[in-house]
Amino acid sequence: MSNKEQQDMVVEFTPLEKIEALYSELTDWYGEADKKELRVAAKLLMVSLEKFSLYGGSDWHDLVNEYVDILKNDPEQFQKILRSNRGELKDKKSTGNYH
User: Fold this and answer.
1) What percent of the chain has pLDDT over 70?
2) pTM score of the predicted model
3) How far is CA 49 from each of CA 44, 45, 55, 61, 71, rounded to the nearest angstrom?
4) How many CB atoms lie within 10 A of CB 11?
5) Which site among 25, 34, 47, 92 is 20 to 30 Å from 16 CA-CA?
6) d(CA 44, CA 40)
7) Predicted confidence (pLDDT) per residue in 46-81, tens digit
């Protein structure tokens, strides 16, 4: 396969898709550990909360609570937000990079 053909098949990942790929990689790292998905999700949440607190201003927790409330009260809307952030609601461009 030529280099050009390989590049034509590469798709640009959205930031959410990159995080999901990292989640999958970390889950694999835990192997057969008990509750590995929950462990990975907790680690990503800890990092996310730290970033919210550092860069989200004085009301950073309001944004966190807003997402939690959407997930609790309107799971379909939350799934729509995720699909949009995965790029499922828009066309993706081909690039030369996986990440």
Assistant:
1) 78
2) 0.70
3) 9, 6, 10, 9, 17
4) 14
5) 34
6) 6
7) 999 999 999 999 999 999 999 999 999 999 999 999
Q: How far apart are the C-alpha atoms of 99 and 19, rounded to whole Å? A: 10
d(CA 98, CA 14): 10
Q: How confident is the model at residue 99 (pLDDT cuts 50, 70, 90)?
A: very low
Q: What is the 3-state secondary structure (H, E, C) of the chain?
A: CCHHHHHHHCECCCHHHHHHHHHHHHHHHCCCCCCHHHHHHHHHHHHHHHHHHHHCCCCHHHHHHHHHHHHHHCHHHHHHHHHHHHCCCCCCCECCCCC
Domains in the chain: boundaries? 3-86
What CA–CA distance (Å, rounded) separates 83 from 12?
15
Encoded tokens for 32: 């057969």
